[in-house]
Amino acid sequence: MDEENPNLLLYQATLDNVFNKPDESNRLIDVLLGKYSNSFYDTIMKELHYMKSANAYRLQDYRTAYEEDSAIVNRYGRVCDSSEIDTRQDDISVFQNLSNAPKMEITIPADSKVPLKRDLAGLFTVSVACERTRWTSYSTRSRLFGDHGIAGQEIRSQDHRR
After folding, report:
1. How far is CA 113 from each of CA 50, 108, 127, rounded to the nearest angstrom?
2. Is the pLDDT of residue 64 over 90?
3. Which domain holds residue 127?
4. Fewer Cβ neighbours under 10 Å: the N or C end of the chain?
C-alpha cells in the first residue's frame, strides 16, 4: 500500500470498512487523520470519523465509537444535516452508556454441533436456549427469525417455546 497517496489510502480504508475489515480500515484512517487531515474537505473528514465509529461499533469498542461520533457533532456538525446530527446524538448517548461495558464473548466448545431440522415448509429450524428460556428459530436461508422476530419485533403471535 502506497501510504504517500492520501486518495488511495482513503479508497482502501473505505473498501476495508465496507468489506468488514475494521482493524485494517482503522489503521488507514489513523494514517489519514494523522498525516493528511489538511488534504481533505470537512465532508470527507466527517466520513473518516463516521467510518472509524462504525468500525469501533463492529469491534465492540464503544468508547471509541462515542469519541468519534462526538467529533462528528462537535467539529463537523456544520456539514451534517439535522437528521444526521440527531442520529449521531442518539448514538453518542448509547455509546456513552456502553463505553465501560466489556466486549461480548461467545464461547463455543470445539465439539459443538447444531442440529438442523426441516419443517413441513422446508425451512430449517434451530432450537435455541438462553438461560431458562427456550424457543425455536426459523431460517429462510438468508436470515434467522425467532418467535420475537428481528431486533425484538414480533413476527408471529403463536408461542413456540418448549
Report:
1. 38, 10, 12
2. yes
3. 106-162
4. C
